[in-house]
């Protein structure tokens, strides 16, 4: 296999996972990003995620189902090999619905997840008519992102901080950081919401979906729930560090990063109704750590996973896209990274070998 010099733009969960999989294929990889693990910037989506695996793929969305299924299997493998080192733990999840979903009576992943079963009528919450329970995992995003970056660097990858005006600017920055600039070069675009504004991409199908959450202390909670209302969704996602992420909102085309007090009150009320143990018995309230808002990188038509040939200085350049995951970034990250590897290796024969640009 030909060794390539690959530049990945973006250091969120999708970008770092993609970089790691490319490194494992023997390529030289540089990651260029404005924001890196450890930061909590509004434009850096990945740290703000819940995050856990609860597939929202529609029955007819075969691509998203494939991405979610393969990533679930990879994460469950990681839970048993690295676990808390990467901020991962398994939990029992329960999903409740205020009305029955249209088009299906059992979720597509019922045969994939362990311990799946439909809820009996007496197990449903008041105001709900449908539900199921299963075993899944949760992700401590701050720990996991740093774990990903550490593994990228352990495999020889280079992570650089830079603000890019255009996608091709990443090549000159990477050439300064890498000793492999003479190799054939490929750029992988994992910019999330940034794909709307990055020069040479300008994807106007990308838009933010606002998610408001409340981070609290768990008091021992080790299970998660999601309540799908008529026009809202509430959830609680415990993490391995004794905290719980309560949510949330799915407000499309909303980029307001200021928490709304009324929304926070609704989120807390829902969670404590389902899990009264979240209330501190000494104060009668939940122990709030902080309020947060994240902007999911959504896209009309769903995730963009494709390769295209660009002309740069009169020579062909392979540009591969992996963005637009919305709220599914973590739960489709490993499989979408593998798709990038496949796209590059499939397209490479059509791109003539060339010297440094």
From TrEMBL:
Keyword Transcription regulation: no
Record-listed D-dopa binding positions: 235, 296, 327
Keywords assigned by UniProt, alphabetized: FAD, Flavoprotein, Oxidoreductase
GO biological process terms on file: D-amino acid catabolic process
Residues involved in D-serine binding: 228
UniProt-recorded name of the protein: FAD dependent oxidoreductase domain-containing protein
Species this chain originates from: Thamnocephalis sphaerospora
Short name of one Pfam family: DAO
Gene Ontology MF term list: D-amino-acid oxidase activity; FAD binding
Stated family: Belongs to the DAMOX/DASOX family.
This protein's record includes keyword Lyase: no
